[in-house]
């Protein structure tokens, strides 16, 4: 099968220029270059994917260096194991030396030696990701399909390439479910059995790698489908006994995505994921996934605030009181609690929801117009006195008791006379 037409049709012009430059220079060096992995799968499916991975039979780093020296492409990085990243205009592209991999023990990073394209394809996770397309001039666009990838793609099947695949690298369990849900595929029977058998092998995977896979899942259009399926398969409890993929999570993830500005959407998903956990459960989760400090703070705050929500359930609260109750929490934790609380008329926590929203959309941005310098000019000396005046001004502004700059000046002057 030849995919030259699909390559020309789906890849943007600039990316094609770079790919052709690379394969041209590789030919001069006597090397062969192939498109591999996700992009081949997606070209066959007709999905756009500009995240290109190229495999070189021969030294990929030397090739990348030569391309960077002789074209406008920039070499962004190169690493041990013969991988390199090139940037050209708006695109980046990964180049790797074809390699053979062996796993000393389950979950360990593999030992890597140079190999052929065939070696490089058999080490991969699933048959649908183990195809390549030649970029050499004599057979440009020709599909390399040693492991039934095309057949599995047509039958919508996810199949591992050897029985030890999940135990070598149990992140493939998470990756497989991700593809299953993204494409609406099914696990081939034997693969499904081995997946279930090897769920305990997740214990061999480091926290950073599990976290990375969850972040990868959170980039999906509908990560809740993946989370739910991982729950049904019994994968989630292996990561943390409190982790669930129920209808509640699905509804809240969906809402989180609809927020106008879903800044840090992945972090928000993490906060929602642990919403029903006990404090101990959260600590276990943070430690297991080696969650970075800032996100850990937001996740702990999410639970801490959840226990304080009854304090916000009073319609008579003034804006300054709401501000006072919420100012110590990470905005992400407040956002997670706003999503978790009811927002329909007549529901029990509607007031709580409104107060959280008021803080997020308005109160946290309220600042006084007058600053320290201006207060000095009004005769208020720096130090505790000024601090007190600024606090009272801020409170008055939150509660709408002062609106204009002139209002603030008037209040500051009257305060200075009293202090
Ligand atoms: N791969 C693998 N085992 C893993 C991770 C990756 O075999 N644990 C291989 C697969 O062949 C995959 C390729 O490395 O196609 C690139 O990995 P990645 O960029 O994570 O996946 P994509 O296939 O590009 O898929 P996605 O569309 O999800 O990004």
How would you characterize this protein structure?
There is one protein chain. By secondary structure, this protein is of the alpha+beta class. It is 52% helix and 11% strand. The chain has helices at 4-10, 13-28, 38-45, 60-70, 117-122, 149-154, 165-168, 171-183, 189-197, 207-218, 223-232, 236-239, 247-258, 265-273, 279-288, 293-308, 319-326, 331-340, 350-361, 372-377, 384-398, 405-418; strands at residues 32-36, 52-57, 74-79, 83-88, 91-97, 99-102, 111-114, 132-134, 143-144, 157-158, 186-187. Strands 3-4-5-2-1-8-9 form a seven-stranded mixed beta sheet. A hairpin with an 8-residue loop joins strand 6 (99-102) and strand 7. It is elongated. The model has no long low-confidence stretch (mean pLDDT 92). The structure holds cytidine-5'-triphosphate (CTP). Cytidine-5'-triphosphate (CTP) binds next to helix 8.
Name the helicity range.
40-55%
Question: Biggest sheet, open or closed, and with what strands and sense?
Answer: 7 strands, mixed
Helix/strand/pairing class, anyone? Answer: alpha+beta
Q: Which word captures the global form?
A: elongated
- Distance from first to last alpha carbon: 86 Å
**Unreliable residue runs:** none
Strand order of the largest sheet: 3-4-5-2-1-8-9
Q: What is the CA-atom radius of gyration, in angstroms? A: 28 Å
Number of helices: 22
How many DSSP E strands?
11
